[in-house]
Amino acid sequence: MRGGRALGAVAMLGLLAACGGGATGSSGAMELSGTPLDPPAQVVATPLVHTAGDAYSLVDDTDKDLTLVFFGYTNCPDICGQVMATLAGTLARLDDSEKERLDVVFVTTDPARDDAAVVDDYVSAFDPSIVGLTGDLDDIVEVGKSLYVGVDQGEKLPSGGYDVTHGTRVMAIDADDQTPVMWDHDVSQAQLAHDVLMLLDEG
């Protein structure tokens, strides 16, 4: 069940990893810690499933100035919890007016085990404002691909479980439904909050 194998995906900007490594860029006073994408990724409108049971599209239902999206799964033994804690800590650093302009979305890469109730419990434990999504695996793969995020649910293991391989970056979606910036999984709360405020100021 451990997302243990890294998939080399040069064509996808090296974004495909199995709970793997990476490093954030250095952050100067006026620089982003994240990595700009040029050209930006164009998000597809394929709907997924909100934990409330409604259809939720990362194009049609993200009406804030900025949306941060992370693909992971609730049984992930390491990176996912780290990233989710960073996202929750970033939210805690923002004031109410700044939070009004931002959505944070978690998309499960393991919908066979992560149904709406499981995802809801998971995201709520970090911050109740985080949007949790599940859905059909093919739809999740399609949406992830449009964001340069690879998703793969491997064959069953002898133990009865299976590998789940997924990108470990946090992706930003702007008001034009494009992904102009990404962050590695080890970005700090301070760095991510700094970048979020910079992007909101530019929006």
Provide the fold topology.
Elements: E1 35-42, E2 48-50, E3 55-56, E4 66-72, H1 79-92, H2 96-99, E5 102-108, H3 116-126, E6 131-134, H4 137-146, E7 151-156, E8 162-166, E9 170-174, E10 178-183, H5 189-202
Parallel strand pairs: 4-5, 5-6
Antiparallel strand pairs: 1-10, 2-3, 2-6, 4-9, 7-8, 9-10
Poorly predicted runs are 1-29, 155-162
- How would you write the strand order of the largest sheet? 1-10-9-4-5-6-2-3
Structural class: alpha+beta
Specify the overall morphology: globular
Order of helices and strands: EEEEHHEHEHEEEEH
Number of helices: 5
Provide the residue-averaged pLDDT: 82
Question: Helix coverage percent of residues?
Answer: 25-40%
How far is the N terminus from the C terminus?
40 Å
The total count of strands amounts to: 10
Radius of gyration: 16 Å
- Taken as a percent bin, the fraction of beta residues is 25-35%
Main sheet attributes: strand count, strand direction, barrel closure: 8 strands, mixed
